[in-house]
């Protein structure tokens, strides 16, 4: 396809993610990386060099958005051993492979919520150059973590890793510095945590609140000033409330969300990224039995009743976006369609609502709704063409073989779950 030719997706049934409706027989024209025209088949004027994909009878929807992964991790239950056996430079190649798995499964935008310094921002530049197929990346670099988040027990390589990805600074000025440092490293958003984590050691309490209100407000203020949103890992309800009070944009996990927190989130417009698949994988008997005893206990504390708490939050009107936390044990990259399905199976969303969560709501959650999340003139041409209609049966999004084409930046990159975009003659031009 030459530089100036257009890619035309003809006569498909197009999902309008903003209105939540399927619109029949629309034609979409893309040029370079943008959608330049959407309209009725009758008023479409074909040009000589157009490359046309006939989408008659197919469902066409916006490229889906995965809002929480860790691209340098694989999802093996033996994650501690993984740290011991992986050379540092291997993380970048692992991240590329995982990014491509997401693209291959119809997710054209992926937000990484914590990685080694430089991995995501570097990979993003290579993908944006068109050298390699990959999703649009939104990265947090390492994130900003506070003392008390993890105890220092484990393989030395894991402790070193956790030290490297931590910016352990107390007080407002240090926090402002840490936010600027993340920006300078190449972060697109700031990731932090108000509570401990499920997989961390015994002293990492999911009920503990790690930052003061003043510090959290400083993170949000400085991030917003620099054009970045803030995502906050929070399991316990006190941690959720502290983040919401401080005006943080997305709550990641939200395991113990209460009615009061849900009300606060609705008032503030805070998004919940429930990462249901992560806890469901951890609680599955095969994975659960491989975890250390204190982690097993925390898994079940979070898992029990979470479905009901998240359903309550959804019913109260909390906005939800899709994220799997892929790389946690048993939770492999490229399976985000399962999270979309869980929105229907576990939280009672309609397939339309689940597809909105996977598209426009994800875009809004990560401040990219002027560019992606819907099929509209002027937005990036990130589009999936599916033989079957996920609005009739949400299982469709769990099998990428249903997708005849995954288009990103106006280029067909994936067909039937396989990467088909290669650019052997492309020169890297880093400007
Ligand atoms: Zn995570």
Structure description:
By secondary structure, the chain is α/β, with parallel strands linked by helices. It has 2 domains: 6-63 and 372-418, Urease, subunit C, domain 1, CATH 2.30.40.10; 64-365, Metal-dependent hydrolases (TIM Barrel). Helix content is 34%, strand content 20%. It has helices at 79-85, 90-104, 119-128, 156-164, 172-185, 213-225, 237-245, 259-268, 276-283, 285-288, 293-303, 306-316, 336-345, 351-358, 360-365, and strands at 6-16, 21-31, 34-40, 51-54, 59-62, 64-69, 107-112, 136-139, 190-193, 230-234, 250-253, 271-273, 319-320, 383-386, 403-408, 411-415, 418-419. Strand 15 (403-408) and strand 16 (411-415) form a beta hairpin. The chain is globular, with a radius of gyration of 21 Å. The two termini are 24 Å apart. 51% of the residues are buried. Zinc ion (ZN) binds next to loops.
């Amino acid at each position: 396809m030459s530089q100036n030719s257009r890619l035309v997706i003809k006569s498909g049934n197009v999902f309008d993610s903003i209105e939540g409706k399927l619109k029949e027989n629309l034609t979409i024209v893309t040029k370079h990386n943008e959608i330049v025209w959407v309209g009725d088949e009758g008023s479409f004027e074909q040009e000589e060099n157009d490359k046309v994909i006939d989408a008659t009878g197919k469902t066409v929807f916006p490229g889906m958005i995965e809002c929480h992964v860790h691209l340098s991790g694989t999802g093996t239950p033996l994650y501690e051993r993984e740290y011991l056996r992986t050379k540092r430079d291997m993380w970048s190649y692992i991240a590329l492979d995982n990014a491509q798995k997401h693209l291959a499964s119809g997710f054209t935008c992926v937000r990484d919520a914590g990685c080694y310094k430089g991995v995501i921002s570097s990979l993003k530049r290579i993908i944006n150059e068109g050298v390699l197929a990959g999703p649009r990346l939104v990265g947090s670099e390492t994130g900003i973590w506070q003392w008390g988040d993890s105890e220092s027990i484990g393989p030395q390589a894991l402790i070193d890793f956790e030290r490297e990805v931590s910016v352990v600074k107390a007080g407002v000025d240090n926090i402002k510095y840490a936010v600027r440092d993340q920006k300078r490293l190449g972060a697109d958003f700031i990731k932090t945590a108000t509570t401990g984590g499920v997989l961390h050691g015994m002293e990492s309490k999911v009920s503990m609140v790690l930052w003061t209100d003043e510090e959290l407000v400083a993170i949000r203020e400085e991030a917003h000033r620099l054009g970045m949103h803030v995502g906050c890992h929070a399991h316990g309800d006190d941690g959720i409330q502290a983040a919401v009070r401080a005006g943080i944009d997305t709550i990641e996990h939200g395991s113990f969300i209460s009615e009061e927190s849900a009300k606060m989130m609705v008032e503030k417009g805070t998004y919940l990224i429930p990462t249901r698949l992560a806890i469901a994988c951890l609680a599955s008997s095969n994975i659960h039995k491989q975890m250390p005893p204190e982690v097993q206990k925390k898994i079940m504390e979070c898992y029990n009743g979470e479905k009901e708490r998240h359903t309550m939050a959804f019913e109260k009107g909390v906005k939800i976006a899709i994220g799997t936390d892929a790389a946690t044990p048993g939770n492999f990259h490229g399976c985000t369609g399962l999270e979309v399905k869980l929105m229907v199976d576990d939280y009672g969303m309609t397939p339309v609502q689940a597809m909105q969560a996977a598209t426009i709501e994800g875009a809004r959650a990560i401040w990219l709704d002027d560019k992606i999340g819907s099929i509209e003139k002027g937005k990036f041409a990130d589009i999936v063409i599916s033989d079957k209609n996920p609005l009739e049966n949400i299982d469709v999004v769990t099998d990428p073989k249903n997708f005849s084409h995954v288009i990103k930046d106006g280029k067909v990159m994936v067909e039937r779950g396989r990467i088909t975009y290669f650019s052997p003659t492309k020169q890297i031009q880093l400007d």
